[in-house]
Amino acid sequence: MYMKLFTILLFTALSLVLSAIAVPLSRAKGFSHDGVIHFIRDNRTLISIIVQVLSTLLALSQTYVVTSLIGLATNARLLHRNPPRLDTLKLLQAITAKSPIFERGSKKASWISVVCLLLLQLPAALWAGSITPTINELTEKTMVEVPDFDQATSKYWASRCAPAQPCDELLGGTQDLGTFSYVNWKGLSRKAVFFSTLTNAIARTGLLANSVSQASSRNLSTPVYQKLDGTGYFYHGRSYGVGSAIGLLQPMYSGDQNAIIRRYSFVEDGYYANVSCHYNRSSQLSFAKSDRVSTPDGIYGPQGYWVHGSLPNGEWAGFPTWGVLYEGFTASIAAVNNQSRYMYGFLAGDAYSMLNQTQCEVWFTPSRFNVSVDMDAKNISVTLSQHKALDIDPSRALVNISFHGVGYLSQTLTTLYTSVLGDSFRRNVENVQSRAQREEVTDQDVVEAVEDCLRLLLDHFLEGSGAAQVMLLRKTKPMSGTITVQVFRIGAFWSALSLLFISTLIAAAAMMLYYKYGLWSKIRSDAECDFMDFKSAILGSLKGSRSEIELVKAWNGQSEDRQVGELRVQANREHLTLTVGLQTGNYIHLSDLSI
After folding, report:
1. Residue 29's CB: how many other CB atoms inside 10 A?
2. Is there a single domain that holds both residue 514 and residue 590?
3. Which N-terminal stretch is annotated as signal sequence (predicted)?
4. What is the pLDDT of residue 585?
């Protein structure tokens, strides 16, 4: 029996230590190892099997301790002057044997045995809850890199380059993540085109023109705009020109560089571009004809024009354009910033008559934005913050370049036969018309569509300058934010805490029992007979009735005695007796009864 006393202490200490470890482990912020997370996520069935096996083994050790303590306490009571009744002994034996009593005349004992056995199953459930790995999310503060428009690099981002001016140093080029340039209304430089692959050599001008045609949603849903690079991200709503580094630079989680990032958010300073448009029927913009190019029989003769005039905030120098035979297929946007006012005016031919004489004013306000990024959905959401913003360019060069980029784009995207930008504006007018469910296009449809197109272009130009600053010059600065990573945790806190409470109770009960009955001294010696053992109970009864069997007389109380275990037991149904002897036949080995 000394081995049982030692095993009880060992299992008690082991359960207490492991349950004590489980509590802080369940409260840990989590572990971000991507390999383990993928294994847990991809092998849930295997994980469940392992958890069930481990929890069962750990619970068995505690169940063994509890039933053994009940047995030790019962043995001690048998030596007391007030020993237990046989019914009580039967109930205690059923609990230690983990076999409930189901008898018609013993309802109370049946209920007690069932409840006790159910309680003995509780540790298995708590162990399962304490060691099951779960995938969770952890959000912590971080720093996110955003474009830095410093004075040292202003010769790039603050330089305006009109369509006819050479500025190869500003054109940038195409990389794996997209085309990046400080002058997004121009194509690629000759050098950039030469070294670019065919699939990556699409200039941002084409992307800009295509995005304009989708500036307005065709229904009441929030429009979604593709980020004009190769990252695959989309803006849910306006970008406001921020978030350009998203997808180009990966956010860093200080705890693990290989962590699986789910989301992150940050603040970024930029400019809120607000646009308001209306029709100005007394517009001062006009076409001035220049020479027509002679062609055989005068077919498709290119006609040159100089578009010029003035807006309410000042004179517009204008630019040259052309069309076949007449100006019907041209659409030009005048851009004038003067007297702290930014204004656009549309001068269009017959094919784009709905755009003609549209006039807009733009206000740029230094603002701080909250940027949220969903890495899985590749979705970006930008909202205006109420906190005070830092003016990233007090000189307004960045704003001026973005503002004039719209006019330059109308100049570079006009061909002999069509205005690419004009076509995009016209298609977006159809989007607004569809959203309003109108049969015919109204002035209101045109005004709303033009406002949406201009906002989108201004946002894209600001975002394009930021992307060029990041990818071409690697000029960034950190901004405060938060990052959410995928982590795994071991166990649930309340399961672990409940398990620790139960383990502590079991340990306390074991200590009290060992001290009360002096079991410490019996660990290294032959302990008393365990009368809860069926074999020992029969031998003890025989010895108490002064059996004449020599093996019984010589029995020293040890259940492991194999010699006395050779005695056989036979039941007599008629006399309701058990006979113990050396007979063979239908007799059962006494040692088999203690298994």
Report:
1. 12
2. no
3. 1-22
4. 53
